Each structure stands twice: as C-alpha cells, then as structure tokens.
Amino acid sequence: MLELTLIRHAKSSRDQTGLSDFDRPLNDRGRRDAPRMGRRLEELGVHFDLLLSSPARRAIETARLIAAELHCPDHRIRTLESLYNADADTLLEEIQRIESGVQHAALVAHNPGISRLYRLLTGEPVDMPTCAVAVVRFDVDDWQAVHMDSGWPHLYEHPKKLAP
C-alpha cells in the first residue's frame, strides 16, 4: 500500500510590492500554521520517505517547516519546477514518476491544482485552504499504478480545525 500526503502551501504575504508571485514568502500566519500542521502530522504518525515541493518560495518554506517538525532530513525534500502552479494532471504525472521503494510521499503545491488532484484521486470534492493536509491511500505497490479514482481518503486536516 502506498500513501500520498497532499499539502497546500501555507498562507503567503502580498505585502512586498515588486515581488513576483514565485518569490512571495509566507506571512506570519503561514509561518505559524506550517509548524502546527507538522506537529499534528507527527501526533498522527504521518511520516514521509520523500517530500516533493514546488520551488516557489511559499511552497518550499512550507515544506521545510513541516519537515522540521517531522524530523524529515533535507535530503528527502526535492523541488520540481513542474509543480509550480501545476494543474492536477501534471501533479499526477509527477506522482507516477516517484521511484520504487518510496512508500509514503508528500507533495507541497498550489491551488487549484492540489484540490483538483485530491478529487481526481479519490472522487471526492474538496477545496483545500492554505496549509491543509490530506492523506490518500492506494492499494498498489507502484506509483505508476496511481491513477484517477484509485485512492481513498485517509486523513484531512487544516489549521482552523486545530485548537489555537
């Protein structure tokens, strides 16, 4: 069985004029929510063999903050240019490229692609707010076998569900 954790990047700042969308950092709420979600995943026993992230600043900051709470070493975090503002089909293609031996992968990406990917994989609609986390399970042993409607929801969390 394979597990995939889908993570929408935490809340980003739009305060700095002149920054491109790609370079926007997390805002205070985002820097607070990402570690909280990491701690929640730790409580639930969720750990990753591999964490794929969009290279956008807000996404990689989210990935690193969550990974730190899970004691996930930096060498397990990989950025992929193709994940920046990717649609669900592109995200799925990258998932299908994950190497054998990885049992639990995580993906930090952007909306609407990440929410649409969840629906594509599980058949269930969701609009993932910033820093939301959804774990999807698959009854397959190879990432190439992950396809539309092949997964089922295992866990869904977002910062507003957590106590302050």
Order of helices and strands: EHEHEHEHEE
Mean pLDDT: 96
CATH topology grouping: Rossmann fold
Strand order of the largest sheet: 3-2-4-1-5-6
Number of domains: 1
What report would you give on this structure?
The chain is an alpha/beta fold and 164 residues long. The protein has a single domain (2-12, 22-161), classed as 3-Layer(aba) Sandwich (Rossmann fold), CATH 3.40.50. The protein has helices spanning 28-43, 57-69, 88-96, 113-122, and strands spanning 2-8, 50-53, 77-79, 104-109, 133-138, 151-157. It has a 6-stranded mixed sheet with strand order 3-2-4-1-5-6, sandwiched between helices. Helix 2 (57-69) links the parallel strand 2 (50-53) and strand 3 (77-79). The relative contact order is 0.24.
Key features of this structure:
alpha/beta, 6 strands, 164 residues, Rossmann fold
Helices, strands, pairings?
Layout: E1 2-8, H1 28-43, E2 50-53, H2 57-69, E3 77-79, H3 88-96, E4 104-109, H4 113-122, E5 133-138, E6 151-157
Parallel strand pairs: 1-4, 2-3, 2-4
Antiparallel strand pairs: 1-5, 5-6
